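Structure ticket #2291
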Amino acid sequence: MIELTNATGSIVSFDGRVLELLGRDCTRMHIRQVKKVEVKEKKGNYSLQVMSHLGAMMMVVKIDQTQKPHLDQLLGALNAARPGEIEFKS
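Resolution: structure written out below.
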């Protein structure tokens, strides 16, 4: 289980099958629904966007730089769960 938290209390978790965003809104996405993962960096902080192949489903969360090692671990786990099938952008 991988978990990331941010300063606002949002939590991103991935158990190898389901990616969850728990915060103001709660979103769950099965790994088979993940189409694209994008990470943007701005002033040492990161924005994680996950888009579904269903089109309408998207998760967006801001991650501070102290969580970068966990973010890298999450990206690696997503890629390992569906190697070559998810588009990664940064």
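Closing remark: The mean pLDDT is 89.
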